[in-house]
Known about the structure:
The chain is an alpha+beta fold and 229 residues long.
Amino acid sequence: MRSANxxxxxxxxxxxxxxxxxxxxxxxxxxxxxxQHQNDDIPKSRKLSTAHRDGSDGIGPSISGPSLRRYxxxxxxxxxQYGASGRRMSQVSRTSISGTSLGxxxxxxxxxxxxxxxxxxxxxxxxxxxxxxMMTGVLSSYLDGEVYDQKLCAxxxxxxxxxxxxxxxxxxxxxxxxVCNVMIGQNSNQGLHYSSRCLWNKETDNYAEATYSKGSLxxxxxxxxxxxx
Length: 229
């Protein structure tokens, strides 16, 4: 067997020592970089200004000229256009939503349960007799003393139809669909037949009719009422 060369052992140990030192140096650099990175994330404390509000630094004499204090965004700045206040006059008045200045309150709609009724109660049924009396009074009050005119009577037909339908709603017939038709024509002692046909439930649905004839015009008003199930 050959004996180991002592110079070879020394060189081998030196290489191991160099590699170990390099590893230790790299590890220390990594730890230092990590600490530096953590320190960078910490916000630096803000230095307090040594300048006083009157413009002096607290050590020497005060500096002449404008104040060194920085203006805040919330403070008014002097302006040539808007005066010393530095604020533009608003053209729209501000109102509080939570207060009573708006005048309107939040209204929550009330949900009503279904009654599952397919027909009206006896007191809620359409009363043709009372509706007919009301319609006769409306026609007399609106057309009394009027003279037949084609354009004027067309306008009166629409107005009378709206008035009669509104009066019928005030009588109180819930869940009824109402259709009102008013016809106005010239009275020349001629014969006239007026008829209508409907498909409905004879137990709940009904109609009322009123006529008016005086002077040079006549009118026929018909109200149809169908129950909405």
